[in-house]
Design goal:
Layout lengths: L1 E4 L5 H11 L7 H9 L10 E4 L5 E9 L12 E9 L8 H15 L4 E4 L10 E2 L3 H9 L3 E12 L16 E5 L5 H11 L3 H11 L7 E6 L2 E9 L20 E9 L8 H15 L4 E7 L2 H5 L4 E12 L2
Parallel strand pairs: 4-5, 11-12
Antiparallel strand pairs: 1-2, 2-3, 3-4, 5-13, 6-13, 7-12, 7-13, 8-9, 9-10, 10-11
Length: about 325
């Protein structure tokens, strides 16, 4: 076994490795290209393929650290292990340990102080799937410490669904899809109220040609005070809450993230903006909706959402 650089020409081999060993998360070439190879934050020095004597791919690790030149509050001292995967026939031979050690060493050489499992820009998972206890124990032995649980939630709708959480008829309130004319005001709102990942994702959304149809905004006296993102198959890139689309017979939609200005909370606006997002997707004929990477299970259960996937987040701090 030897480690070699990640190579675009080995795309088919990487997809085969993934889908043979993680069939519960069907990987599409377009998603892998977008989230792994095209992410500006991938560290090709820290990422590696493991190949056997026949030069067949039997394992891979993809690692990242923040490298973009954007004025946004993303962590500069954090690295991410996006993927670490070894073919089932080659496990218990130390291959995973060699891949992880290589990634950690190269990340630490760039000044990284902590490494997270998943949760990266253009991530696949917010942690380790909770049912994979073998992988959890393996990473714990490697020095990674659990940080809590996250969930993906799912709800399927019938034609008789009706909005019920909030009276949207209040004259000073306006729920609407984001218009091009509100783009800068929206980015300013995110920079002020939600600097970091949500702002970063919105910036990328517009860079990729987004027109605004993926954001429902809440205005009060013509000022943006809340938002909810909605995703479907027509979105300008494959968003995190529709990664699971291949598992469904019908088109999958996604809701989230959502946020309300801290000065306006406690008035039911959070549930209201989620329902406005759901309504937008229902108007597009979407019956199945996922809310990804959240710990707010009881909040979304008020709208009928239930846990579907569970993850445990992990990190390792350099000594």
């Amino acid at each position: 076994m030897r480690l070699i650089a990640i190579d675009q020409e080995r795309m088919t081999d990487m997809l085969t490795l993934w889908n043979d060993n993680l069939p519960a998360f069907p990987m599409r070439q377009s998603l892998f290209q977008q989230n792994s190879l095209d992410d500006q934050n991938i560290s090709f020095q820290a990422s590696r393929l493991a190949v056997n004597e026949e030069n067949c791919v039997i394992g891979m690790v993809i690692a990242k650290y923040w490298q973009e030149k954007l004025d946004v509050a993303m962590p500069k001292d954090t690295g991410w292990i996006q993927v670490l995967l070894v073919d089932q026939e080659y496990r218990q031979q130390g291959i995973g340990g060699k891949l992880l050690a290589h990634a950690e060493e190269r990340l630490q050489a760039t000044g990284i102080q902590q490494i997270l499992l998943g949760r990266d820009p253009y991530h696949y998972f917010p942690g380790i799937p909770a049912e994979d206890q073998q992988t959890i124990k393996w990473f714990e032995k490697a020095g990674y410490i659990g940080q809590g649980e996250e969930y993906d939630l799912l709800q399927s709708y019938s034609d008789d669904w009706k909005v019920q959480a909030f009276d949207k008829s209040r004259e000073e309130m306006s729920f609407q899809l984001l218009e091009r004319s509100d783009k800068q005001a929206f980015l300013d709102f995110l920079h002020r109220c939600f600097p970091g990942r949500w702002e970063y994702e919105a910036m990328h959304y517009f860079e990729k040609g987004g027109t605004g149809r993926e954001f429902v905004i809440l205005k009060k006296a013509d000022q943006i005070i809340g938002f909810c993102r909605v995703n479907d198959a027509q979105s300008p890139y494959i968003a995190q809450n529709v990664y699971w689309d291949p598992l469904f017979d019908q088109e999958l939609g996604g809701v989230g993230p959502l946020g309300v200005d801290a000065k306006e909370r406690g008035q039911g606006f959070g549930l209201a903006i989620v329902e406005a997002g759901i309504q937008a997707l229902r108007n597009r004929g979407i019956d199945h909706i996922v809310i990804d990477w959240t710990g707010l299970v009881s909040f979304y259960q008020k709208l009928g959402y239930q846990p579907w996937k569970k993850y445990v987040s992990y990190k390792k701090v350099n000594e």
